[in-house]
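User: Can you help me understand a structure? I only have the sequence.
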Amino acid sequence: MSAQNTAISFCKSVLPISTEFMDQLRRVIDEHAAHLNDNHITINFKDSSYSAAKGGYHPVEISLIKMAEYHYVISYITDFSYCGHPSEELERDLDFDFGNSLALSRPFGWIDISLPEIAELYQLWESNFIAYLTMDVYDQIQIQSL
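Assistant: Let's start by predicting it. Here is the structure, written out as tokens:
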């Protein structure tokens, strides 16, 4: 791990983002040589075998915005899934939009991110996501920076 990437830190959030999750983001950024001089980093996690017919692990997109040197805030976390019979399309299943203080759950629509139920939902999502990262289910991890 480079000295540059070990210095990255994250702003506090309304949701209970764990230290383990932040450590995983640091690891992914370091392993994929993200440019921390950029103001915006988007990380995409994909399981190339995921399909509407066979299922698999949902694609996830995480957006970070630079607040100060090596200090970032999570802008959003989006979990995608296939929806809409008979012609299924990849759509947002869960979306934690920190910038607008909203969360999207496909069954319930947009709701206030500060509700206790959203914190519980987030913790469940996060624990699953960390487990998937540990299991190396995402065979395509891409980082885009602006």
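Now, to help you interpret it: Residues 82 and 90 are 4 Å apart (CA to CA). DSSP finds three helices and eight strands in the chain. Let me know which part you'd like to focus on.
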